[in-house]
Amino acid sequence: MPPHAPGSVLATVLLARVACAADPAPVTAFVLAGQSNMEGQGFIAADPKRNGGKGSLEALARNPASPEALRQWLRADGAWAERDDVWVSYLGRNGALRPGFGARDDRIGPELGFGQVVGGALEEPVLLIKLAWGGKSLAKDFRPPSAGGETGPSYLELVRTVKATLADPGRVWPAVAGRPIRLAGFGWHQGWNDRVNQAFNDAYATNMICFVRDIRREFNAPGLPFVIAATGQGGSNDVHPRAVSLVRAQEEAAAYFGPTGNVAFIDTRPFWRPKEESPNGQGYHWNGNAGTFHLIGTSMGGAMLRILKERRSSNP
After folding, report:
1. Which residues contact 246 (CB under 8 A, 6 or more apart)?
2. What domains can you pick out in the chain, each with its CATH number?
3. CA pair distance 248, 229, nearest whole angstrom
4. Can you tell me the distance from the alpha carbon of 81 to that of 65, in angstroms, rounded to the nearest whole number?
C-alpha cells in the first residue's frame, strides 16, 4: 500500500490513538540514605591549592586514563553533563542528575554513579530520593522501631519524606506529574558514628537487620531490594578493631537475609585513596576523593541492578 493511501493514514491514526491511550511508563524510584558520606564529600573542581587538584572530579574526568564512566561527565565544551531521565530530590534540591548534588553544590556523593548506572540500564525515568544528614548514627538517629527504645528522628523524617514524595512525585519532578511511581530499591551508606562508639558498634548488625525489616514494612514491600555500602574508610589496611567489626556487622546484616533475601553488601575498602591522591586528608570523608564516591555509587547501582534482574528471573 502506498504510504499516503487512505488505509495507511487510518492505520497511523489508530496507532497514535492507542499510543496516547496507553498508560505512561511508571517512574522508578530509589532511596539513597545515610550520613555525611551519603551526603557526598567528593570535590568537583580541580583546585590547585588542594593537592594540585588530585582526586577531584574535574581532574579525573580530564585524565584520558580514567574510566569512561568518569570522563563522560565532562562535555567537550568544558561544562558538566546532565541526564534528564534521572532526577534527584535531595532535601529541597531537585534537578536532573549532574555533578553538584553532594553535601554542597561543589561536591558529589554516591548518587552520581548510582544514577548513571541504573539510568543507563532502565528504560523508564528514574527518581533518586536522597536523604542524608551528617553525624547521624543507626543506633540513635536512624534507630528503627523494632530495635526497641525511642525511634530515631532521622528514621521518622526519612519515612515521612519518602511517603510524601511517592504520593506526589510531580512536586519534586514536574515532568512526571500524574504518572504512576514505584519504589524499586534502597541504598544505604552510613556507619561512622556507630564505628566510633563501642556500644553502637556492637549493636550494629541487629539494628541494621531491624532497619531493613522496618523499612520494608513501612512501604508494604516485603522484598524491597537493599544495598548496604560498607563504612570502609582507611581501606583494607585499617585494622582498628571497631573499623573491622563495623564492616563485618554490615556484611553480616546483609547475609542474614540469605542469598535470595534481596540484600547486597558492597565492600568499599578497595575504593580508599590516600590523601596524597586526594583533595584533602579528611579520612572520615574518604579524603574528599571524587573517584571514591563515584566508585561507591556505581558499585551500589550495579548491585541494585543484579538484585532487580534476579527478582525478574524468579518472577517472570
Report:
1. 191, 194, 195, 201, 204, 231
2. 27-314 (3.40.50.1110)
3. 12
4. 19
Q: With contact defined as beta carbons under 8 Å apart, do 61 and 70 qualify?
A: yes
CA gyration radius, the chain: 21
Q: Which cell is 17 given?
A: 490513538
- Cβ within 8 Å of residue 278, ≥6 positions away: 51, 54, 55, 286, 287, 288, 289, 292
Whether the pLDDT of residue 16 is over 90: the answer is no
Does residue 11 surpass a pLDDT of 70? no
- pLDDT tens string 136-156: 999 999 999 999 999 999 999
Helix spans in the chain (H)? 6-21, 36-39, 57-62, 68-71, 111-121, 153-167, 192-195, 198-202, 204-218, 241-256, 290-314
For cell 556505581, the residue is: 298
Closest residue by Cα to residue 37 from 136, 109, 106 = 109
